[in-house]
Structures are given as C-alpha cells and as structure tokens.
Amino acid sequence: MSKRLLGYLTIERPKRAPLQLQLCRGLRSAIQDGALSPQDQLPSSRDLASRLGLSRNTVTAAYDQLVSEGYLESRPRSGLYVADRLTFQTPVRQPPPRVTMTPRVSGPSPFRPSQPDVRLFPLAAWNRMRARALRQHGEALLHYQSRLPLGLPVLQRALAAYLRDSRGVDCAWEQVAVTSGSQQALYLIGQLLLRPGGVAYVEDPGYNGAKAAFSATGARLAPVPVDAQGLAPPAALEPGSLLYTTPSRQFPTGASLPVARRLALIQAATQASAWIVEDDYDSEFRYSSAPLPSLYSLNPGGRVIYIGSMSKILFPSLRIGYAVLPSKFVEFFEALRTIVDDHGPLVDQATLAEFIASGALYAHLRRCRAAYAERASSFCDTAAALGLPFRFAHTEAGMNLLGETANGDERSERLRQRGFDIPPLSAYSIESRRDGLVFGFTAFEPSAARAALRKLAGCL
Ligand SMILES: Cc1ncc(COP(=O)(O)O)c(C=O)c1O
Q1: pLDDT one-digit tens code per residue, 346-381
Q2: Ligand 1 center to residue 91 CA distance, Å?
Q3: CA-CA distances (angstroms) from residue 18 to 9, 23, 43, 264?
Q4: Which pTM was predicted?
Q5: Residue among 179, 207, 231 whose CB has most ligand 1 atoms within 8 A, to mutate
Q6: Which residue, of 187, 228, 254, 379, has the fewest CB within 10 Å?
C-alpha cells in the first residue's frame, strides 16, 4: 500500500466522526484525487484493518458502502477494485475551516440606532400565548400551509383591526400581507413594481434597507432631499415610478412630514400613476402627543402602499412585518412570496394574533412609550449637561436622535474605536451633505446611557 494512499486514511483518535465514516471519507478522497486510480485493487479488509488498527467489520462496512455508491466494484474471486471510468476534476482543496467557539450573539453597543429594549418584552406572557395558540390551532400549525403565503388569516384580521384603530389605515384584511420583517415587504414590492431602468425615489438621507431592496431590481435610485420638515416632494414624478418615504418620522433625521407635503406627494403620485411606499416603522413611539395619522389615511385605496414592522414594537428577531397591498396586487404578491419561502413561521404568527387580540400589544406599547419617553429626555438632559457638541432636533418621538454636528464621519469613527456604534449621517446619504451622528437611545436604561454619554464626552 502506497505511502500516499496511507496519507488519506489517517484515522482521527479520539474520534470526531465514526470510524467507518472516516474511512469512507478517506477512500473517496483518495479516489477523487487520483491516489487510487480506476482498476486499482484495494487491499484486503484484513490487511487494511491491521494497518489502520481497525476492526475488520469496520473496513468491510466501509468497502460495502463505497460499492453501493459506485466508487468500488467487486470482482468474484479476485477482490475489490476502483470502478472503471471514474474521472474527477482535479480538486482545489480548501484548507479545513478552523474550529472556533461559536460566537455568542450579543446585544447592541451604545448608541446603535433603531434598537428596542427587548428586556421590556413580556416573554412569559408571550410563551403562554404561544402554548395557547398551539392548543387552539392544533397540529395544523406545524404543516406546510402553502395556501397561506400572506400569513395566517387570524393575524391578517388582527393586524387590519390594529391598523384601522391606531393608524387610520382602512383596508380589507385580505390586503394585509404578513412578511418576514418589513425588509421582505420592501424587497417584494420592488420586485413587483420596478424594472431595470425604472426609477425609485428615495429620501436622502434615508433608509438603506429600502435602497438595497429597490436597487436590486436594476432600478435607478433618485435621491430626494430631506430638510427640517422631512422629504421635499418633487414637483413631478416619472410615470410608473415608486417613491419611498417615512412620513411619520423621517429616518434617520426624525422630521414629521406636514400635511401639505403629504397632499403634494399624493397628487404627484396620482398624476404620474406612481406608487408611494409609506414605511411607518416606529410611529407608535410619540411621547408628547398622539401618533400622527398615516399618509395612507389621506388616500385610502389610492396610490399608497403601507408597510410596518413588529421589529421595533416587539423584538427584531421575530422577523414579522406587513404590507397593506392594493387589491389588484394581492395575487402577484402571493405568487412572489410563494417563490421566496412559501410562507412565514405560523406558530409565531398565531402567537402574535393572540398577543394583539388579548390587548397585550397595547399594554406593551404603553410600557415602552413611558420608558422611552423617560430615556429620550434623560439622554437630552445629560448631553446638554455634559456640553456635548451636538444639536438634537425632533426629540419628541421615535427611537433615534439626530445629533447635528461638524465632522460627523471622523467623530463616528473615533467613537467606534472606543466601543460605540453611532453611525454618521453620511452612512445613510447619497448626495446629501448634511452632517451629524445618529444616536439610538431606546435600548439603554437611563443610568447606562448616562455612563456611556460621560465616556463619550471623554472620547470627544
Ligand atoms: C426605516 C426603517 N424601516 C423598517 C425597519 C424595520 O425593518 P424590519 O421589519 O425588516 O426589521 C427599520 C429598522 O431599522 C427602519 O429603520
């Protein structure tokens, strides 16, 4: 037996994989790499077993396995041979991956934007509702449910009722598509409405998730400037285009779009037969007044596609978002969703339906709103007391605060090196030259935020 062949048949001890499997793997690689050629005779099982310190049974079982896979063939009264006509491409062997400890998942560093405080989430109540939902729906929840690409009807109904009551979104429940985060809604809407060479208007600065989803279609991104009142509506839109906006609270600057601009947008979209995608991602968090009505509520059944997310009001890893689709798109959206992943996780959807219907969602929102309101004012007070070089605008709502300042890029980088995660405004910009840092404040308790801000003051 050649030295080269023996090199392939090194058996690892203590064994990480069963011995038979290790031997099969070694023999296969030897054949694929040409250390054993077609028609070569294999050593007898007794010989190989004694060479490798294995039992004869192990070797025989490995040989049988390779015969059944077609690598080896047995010739009566002669022995085992490498099968004829096996030619493999010369493999480029990658070095085996280094075995490292699986990295622990960790929470956000200060002051990473758009992070809810998941410690406020009533996990025990959620788990009880999950158990109840499983009892109610039975094992049907565990099967493929390919006829439900838009989600469980109980959740579609619960969301439609929630959106009508809290956001003024009047729609039939069949128009509500439950998606994997609002990111999937953005992606599928882009696939549905945009073509290569088409135009997607996006806020500048604006949400990168939307830009990525729309530019993946080959459409051109047309940046629309954002000022202190939010997006400045273009006088006219390209026919058949799409415009993405965050009117309740512009991401990432925090401005709320005044009604006159909302009406101008709807008029421009109507004239151009364009679609407005309204991303209402954190409108539930307004601290000094009631949430603003949605843009959709000004043009129900018109040119607005409304999308929202459970990521901020419950927890992001749930990956549940939704879109309110124009009725004529429902069928196309269903077809696309079926291609992507058939349907979303139904146990979570049933639990969420229960969570909404039981009133737990509203209670949780009240709790978060109170905590976040306190955190927003504590953050701003501490920043002022420390004399930080930022001007904070739009502090009455949302999860993020834009701190306007000069040299945002450089400051963000310096802070990153000291363990902070505070992106500069340029990270969200195409042409905009507005400068500043985007602070998320909701995930950090006031005492932790104060300590982090003191450290930040030292770094600057
Ligand atoms: C503007 C905006 N829209 C939507 C989302 C939520 O995305 P998803 O529902 O995919 O978690 C975010 C999250 O950061 C966001 O900032």
Answers
A1: 999 999 999 999 999 999 999 999 999 999 999 999
A2: 43
A3: 14, 9, 21, 69
A4: 0.88
A5: 207
A6: 228
